[in-house]
Design goal:
The structure is a single chain. By secondary structure, this protein is α+β, with helices and mostly antiparallel strands. The chain has 2 helices and 5 strands; from the N terminus they run αβββαββ. Helices cover about 20% and strands about 45% of the residues. β4 and β5 form a beta hairpin.
Amino acid sequence: MKNILLVAAIAVTLSSCAVVASPVLGTIYTDVKAPLIATSNPVASKVGTAEATSILGIVATGDASIEAAAKKAGITRISHVDYEASSVLGIFAKFTVYVYGE
């Protein structure tokens, strides 16, 4: 009985999955681009990006905030924001924010 509980505990621990926010999710593979927000400001030429990644759902790092992406590109007036979410076999996931503006 103890062996079964030990195996079950190990299986649960090792079954962590790297998931990423997405309007749709593929169990094996996800690669989705989608809108996040829009403003009444005109579409502009500057684009800033920011990203966060996750490995096995155990370690996650990065700053995928709108503020970080806008700061990288020197954007003070945001036109719209899109994002891209990708995941492979629940092992690796990446979330990228694209900020457009002036």
